[in-house]
Amino acid sequence: MVVAIILQNHGKLPFTNNQLKNKIQAADVRCDFELTFKAARKLLLMDFGYVLAEIRPDHPVFPIGGPSDIEGDDAEEAPAEGSGEEEEEGTQTQATQKSGRGTGRATRKKTFIIVNTMKPELSFVNCGKREFAYQRDGDPKAAAQMTVLTLTLLYIFMEGGEVSEELLWLFLKPYGFNTETTHKLITDHGGVRSLVTSQFVKQQYLVRHTTQGRNDGPELAYYRWGPRADLELSRLAIVKLCGKVFGVEASMENFGERFNNAETTERRRLAKILSFTRNL
After folding, report:
1. What pTM was computed for the model?
2. Residues 30-48: pLDDT tens digits?
3. Contact (Cβ atoms closer than 8 angstroms) between residue 70 and residue 63
């Protein structure tokens, strides 16, 4: 099961409990999926530091303004001890309806991602006219992609939680990530534009939505942090990184409400991750 989960997470793409169940039961129809799934979640956490987190695809975990204006727990808290095979009452699968059999209960599809609790620090590669330190022993291509992601998430956060695609391209350009030209380190995903609009969205780092332009003009695209970014990355680290870039202390005095929002969101992020590990 652990191997199946890690393979299913290839490319950091979300996966469902039904996909896992089909793979496992194809190998062993007698497998008790619920017990095996719970044991696998515990092993992933204890041996690898991975948390299996349930998400709602294309729905940020925290709202645009951050959680500082929300009282209590998240309205749609994921089940603390979800086995991946909880069921909903009053529904039947199409197969059981046709056969006349069934218990009146059907498996509810859930979507999961793996969150690495051994989170690395955010870093930039050398890009454009500005240079930032990065791990030179690492993979330059992976570092370049991480830079685009970090810059994008940083810009979204500092702009209040949502930015237009047009302004995002303008922001990335001075750092050497021009969507109209080919970047020497970003070729695997069709260039910078495809990396942002497709790959990061599929991985759930970003949520992309469109609205109709004025006077029946072309659609306008906007970006927010996605559920993977909400759970995997720290807004407080983003603020501290901004402080290093601008040579100022990451504090309430220098960053105002954004610093307060980052601190509050970080506490809730850690609590959210902890909720996925209960009763393992």
Report:
1. 0.80
2. 788 888 889 999 999 999 8
3. yes
